[in-house]
Design a protein that fits this description.
single chain, Muramoyl-pentapeptide Carboxypeptidase, domain 2, 4-stranded antiparallel sheet, 4-stranded mixed sheet, elongated
């Protein structure tokens, strides 16, 4: 299911309301008290090469941790190369810079834009394999509580915004016989159990049955590994929620 953006009412409920004054060009100036309480500088090392501030960006305090976690996941999967430009996060303004429209989620510091030249508002976002595409990043940001504007009726392919605070589903690391299985996409779901893609796990275990190794079903990781004679150990360290290590008994 494609994540949907929060309503303005829900945004205000989660991140607070503020008084503001209108500026030229659709910008606004928010009361200093709200800004000091809610907007923080977040260190995103993965953006050091594309921001003038060396990866230091302003963002909503309540969502800062999941933003960092998402970019760490992008780096772990070798996808930083897809981020060609950083085009802003906290920018107090109206939607489309039009004072007749409502306030943009950027005003609350819960949104960011990347790769604008290839993913303009109202245009078809760059396709998979094309320069400037953000599509390989979308599943990661969605798993960390962000929705992508490229799914919208009027596409906004540059745009990502918070749609869930501290999502229950988070990535973990998986090692089978000492080798990390990155493409197993292992997550901890709200029921506290780990799930991962069957095909990549089966390949890492040396299973050759193509009907299994090509399978993209999500299955309980620990139960599947134990049923094939593996000892499974859990550590709270690593990635967002921890690390699973499995060794053949």
């Amino acid at each position: 299911m494609v994540p949907k953006p929060l309503s303005t009412q829900k945004v205000k409920q989660l991140f607070g309301e503020f008084a503001y004054t209108e500026l030229e060009g659709g910008r606004i100036k928010i009361e200093p008290g709200w800004v000091e309480e809610n907007i923080v500088t977040v260190e995103i090392p993965q953006l050091a090469g594309v921001t003038s501030a060396g990866g230091r960006i302003p963002f909503q305090r309540k969502a800062a941790e999941q933003l960092k976690n998402a970019f760490e996941e992008v780096e772990r999967k070798g996808l930083v190369k897809y981020i060609l430009t950083w085009d802003g996060s906290w920018v107090p303004r109206h939607i489309c810079w039009n004072k007749k429209k409502g306030l943009s989620p950027h005003s609350w510091g819960i949104a960011f834009d990347i790769n604008v030249p290839w993913n303009g508002y109202g245009k078809q976002p760059a396709a998979e394999g094309e320069r400037g595409t953000v599509r390989p990043l979308v599943p990661i940001f969605e798993a960390h509580g962000f929705c992508w504007g490229g799914h919208w009726k009027t596409p906004d392919g540059m745009h990502f915004e918070v749609c869930e605070l501290n999502p229950a589903t988070q990535y973990v690391l998986l090692f089978i016989d000492g080798i990390e299985v990155k493409d197993a996409e292992v997550v901890i779901r709200s029921n506290g159990r780990s799930y991962g893609l069957l095909g990549p796990m089966a390949k890492a275990m040396g299973i050759t049955d193509e009907s299994v190794t090509s399978n993209d079903d999500m299955v309980p990781v620990a139960a599947f590994l134990r049923s094939h004679g593996y000892e499974v150990k859990w550590s709270p360290e690593g990635a967002r929620k921890g690390t699973i290590r499995a060794e053949k008994v």
